[in-house]
Amino acid sequence: MTLRIYNTLTRALEDFSPLEPGHVRMYVCGITVYDLCHIGHARSAVAFDVAQRWLREIGYDVTFVRNITDIEDKIIRRALDNGETIRQLTDRMIAEMYRDFDALGVQRPTRDPRATDYVPQMLDIVRKLQDKGLAYQAANGDVNYAVRRFAGYGKLSGKSLDELQAGERVAVSDGKRDPLDFVLWKSAKPTEPDGAKWDSAYGLGRPGWHIECSAMSCALLGDTFDIHGGGADLTFPHHENEIAQSEGANGVPLATVWMHNGFVNIDNEKMSKSLGNFFTIREVLQQFDAETIRFFIVRSHYRSPLNYSDVHLQDARAALKRLYTALDAGLNWCGSNGVPLPDIKLSEEFVDAGSIAAAFAEAMNQDFGTPEAVGVLFDLVRMINQGIERLKPGAATDLATETELGVLRDALAHDVSMLKALGGVLGLLQGDAKTFLRAGSTLDEAAIQAQIDARAAAKKARDFAEADRIRAELLAAGIVLKDSPTGTTWEAAS
Fold first, then answer.
1. Which residues of 467-487 are buried (b: 16+ CB within 10 A; e: fewer)?
2. What burial letters (b/e) apply to 71-96, b meaning 16+ CB within 10 Å?
3. pLDDT on residue 402
4. Which of 43, 32, 46 is nearest to 265 (CA)?
5. Which of these, 174, 247, 178, 185, lies nearest to 210 by C-alpha position?
6. Phi, then psi, of 59 in degrees rounded to 5
7. CB 182 within 8 A of CB 147
8. What pLDDT, on the 0 to 100 scale, is given for residue 393?
9. What's the whole-model pTM score?
10. DSSP for residue 477
11. For residues 245 and 210, is the Cβ–Cβ distance under 8 A?
12. How many Cβ atoms from other residues are within 10 Å of residue 272's Cβ?
């Protein structure tokens, strides 16, 4: 099966083939580190984490670069407001970013370059653009890109120059020849701290926002690489400007495939700091566990809008609990009956036509179709539950031959291992099942077990009223008992 990816540049699903056989070079626009990350950042981070996981799973070596913007107007203002240096602020916010991303199971990129480490490379691009007549220095000292001199401007957003509006309307008096022109190098202001200024052929200043990604991506991945990703809000002007800068300077396409994840909506309105309708990852983690947040993101397609609400997260938690419940039941049955779990090699399973793994691979190969892939996990849940029922004492399997029973046991063990393995591709189901299911309980585990033992004794003595009383008492305390042929287990009610 061939991986197909939706390319924003061509507005079509395309068969994916890296420029270098066996090796994928991918760049994703990262975070501007002046504050805690919000749920929109989580959506992008998880979306491209899943993409790079899948690329590796199907056999590619992946060089994954995700930049860090550590110089920008908001950073300068925040550092000044806090009475700290820019470096102190950005170091602290980078650590907080990784605290959140690590919690969400987002794997670290191959490289996470900081913009401030690539100023010489940015200035080199500016020089090339000026030499080619695509950039000019204004009277105020800024160096601007002459948008109308780049023939391909607008090809990513699909708009003509006449239709486009500048990301920020700028008057000619501000030094720009055209409102669509954008700044490559900002002349330093006397009020800006030393950490926000670099010497250059254009005088003291600092880079514009867009130039950093052109410099870092090309320096680390080459002038042309395979995949460029980011949020849909970056399509214009950021990514459009990246193309103009990089291709204007180097004369070759910047990226073969452009991927963009959808917006996060709150009450059907795009989440935005400017609107004040945003939630930090840290805030959401106070209400929901990290894996539930990840599952909430993954079960929607990365290009679709993600509708955030407590109700949707509660539903995600309930659905994830179903997965863990089946995993726990399967592990318990196999462990109690001495049935070993097979070592699943997914690369082999994916090519087995008609298998559950092949269905998962088919979903993921269709533009990283995580909703369909999650559906395959629930197919496995049904198979595991059915397998346990068929193997219960008193079931029809009592009449089967030992060979037939062996096949059923092996099938169940295979399905349990497969659920965990396929979940791992999405960054799910890698924790201890019982720990997940029991999270939120306020009762001591030993006290709960004592009640379970007392209930078992009551049932043995045929005191069913007492057994029911104990069950009800535990339920009132938020503890749900689960009876099975292997014994009684418990989980938290919520």
1. beebbeebeeeebebeeeeee
2. bbeebbebbbeeeeebeebbeebbeb
3. 79
4. 43
5. 185
6. 105, 5
7. yes
8. 79
9. 0.91
10. T
11. yes
12. 15
User: What is the spatial distance between Cα 339 and Cα 201, in angstroms, rounded to a whole number?
Assistant: 71
Reading the block at residue 488, the tokens are: 């009684």
Of 462, 444, 456, nearest to 484 by C-alpha is 456
Closest CA to 95 of 112, 81, 118, 71: 112
Q: Name beta bridge partners: 62.
A: 24
Average pLDDT over residues 110-135: 98
The sheet carrying 264-266 orders its strands as 269-270, 264-266, 306-308
User: Dihedral of CA 336/339/344/349: which sign?
Assistant: negative
Diameter of the chain by CA atoms? 94
135-137 and 143-145: which strand pairing?
A: antiparallel
At 1, list the tokens: 């099966």
Q: What is the mean pLDDT of the chain?
A: 91
Asked if 34 and 75 touch (Cβ cutoff 8 Å), the reply is yes
Is a pLDDT exceeding 70 seen at residue 297? yes
What are the backbone angles phi and psi of residue 139, rounded to the nearest 5°?
Answer: -65, -30
CA angle 407-411-414, nearest 5°? 140
Closest CA to 135 of 196, 192, 208: 208
- For 372, the 3-state DSSP assignment is helix
In percent, the amount of the chain with pLDDT more than 70 equals 90
DSSP code of 111? B
Q: What is the DSSP letter of 168?
A: S
Mean pLDDT of 333-360: 94
What is the Cα–Cα distance from 333 to 88, expressed in whole angstroms? Answer: 53
d(CA 320, CA 325): 9
Distances (CA, A) of 486 to 262, 328, 333, 437, 473: 45, 12, 7, 18, 23
Q: Could you give the 3-state DSSP secondary structure of residue 24?
A: strand
Per-residue CA distances from 1 to 16, 227, 344 (Å): 11, 20, 20
CA distance 42 to 101: 7
- What is the token pair recorded at 301? 């397609």
Q: Amino acid identity, residue 196?
A: A
Instruction: Determine how many CB atoms are found less than 10 A away from the CB of residue 41.
Output: 22
Burial, 151: exposed, middle or buried (Cβ in 10 Å; 0-12, 13-18, 19+)?
exposed
Cis peptide before 237 (omega within 30 of 0): yes
